Amino acid sequence: MRNYCRFLTLLLLVGSAERADSQNVNNPFLPYDPDQNTLILYHFDEQPSSMVLDASGNTLHGLWTPTPAGSTGRFGNAITLSGVAEVISTTFPELEDTDLTVEAWIYPLSHTTCLVADLRSPGIPADDGIAIGLTEEGHAFGISQGGHLPFFIVESTSVIPLESWTHVAVVFPGTAALLQIYVNGNLEAGIDGVRWRGTRKVVLGKVMSGGWGHFTGLLDEFRVSTVTRGFSPVSVNGTSWGQLKSGWE
Q1: Could you count the other beta carbons within 10 Å of the beta carbon of residue 30?
Q2: Given this structure, which CATH class describes domain 35-227?
Q3: Residues 188 and 223: beta-carbon distance below 8 Å
Q4: Number of H helices, E strands in the chain
Q5: What does the DSSP assignment read for 181-218?
Q6: Which of 141, 145, 191, 228 is the most exposed place for a label (fewest CB within 10 A)?
Q7: Tens-digit pLDDT string for the chain (249 aa)
């Protein structure tokens, strides 16, 4: 009996080690697992639902207004935004000049000037924060503003294709005052001298304030990290995509 118990204990330890080794925080071609730098992680696998569950462990769940349709996603399920629905996250402690990475898989159905993800500080001024958007020409862009400072915008060189999944990330190394945009793991543009005052809430599908349009398309694997994630392009089936590498290791 004693040897049997030792055998079971060994199996449990080995199983725990395998689960730890299989944790995915760097590869966007698999669903992400949370790590200590994950602030928000939405898989959208519970969709369609009026609630968005946060898998980061920080319980920063969101609510849809109204509830959007569910769809097959890049991994599991995704949400389909018709240009009207939005999600608003639970308010979290304010971030200010912190290393930040905001990323998602997007499947646009039209090219219109819009914000896909808007991280802002509600109140006055309401324009503090960072956002990911698309232009009517189909370019992805990152935008940052701190208080009454001017906008900083960085725009991708490539066009985001319609009806196809694309990974887009905006990276902000707070101490370096940079704003960078990655498309499918490729660094496409950057700008320096960027500052922002903080963010306490996430809005998906539309802008929190102002005249930006609504995103129309599918959204999957939305993640906010309080670290600058790094990217290294690789080739997958002959197509240039991206493979995340941790920027903090």
Answers
A1: 11
A2: mainly beta
A3: no
A4: 1, 18
A5: EEETTEEEEEEES-----B-EEEESS-SSSS-B--EEE
A6: 191
A7: 544 344 333 333 334 333 334 577 767 777 888 999 999 999 999 867 788 899 999 999 888 877 777 888 999 899 888 776 677 777 777 776 678 899 999 999 999 888 888 887 655 455 567 888 999 999 998 887 665 555 678 899 999 999 999 999 998 877 667 788 999 888 898 887 666 556 677 888 866 555 677 889 999 999 999 888 876 554 433 344 344 333 322
Residue 91 contacts by C-beta under 8 Å, 6 or more apart in sequence?
A: 122, 200, 201
Match 């995509």 to its residue by tokens. Answer: 241
At 9 the three-state DSSP class reads helix
pTM for the model stands at 0.80
Radius of gyration of the chain (CA): 19
What are the boundaries of each domain within the chain?
35-227
Please report the sign of the dihedral spanned by the C-alpha atoms of residue 73, residue 77, residue 83, residue 87. negative
Q: Find the helix or strand (DSSP H, E) in which 3 lies.
A: helix 2-21
- CA 143 from centre of chain: 14
Contact 85, 68 (CB under 8 A): yes
- For residue 115, what are the CA distances in angstroms to 83, 212, 230? 11, 7, 23
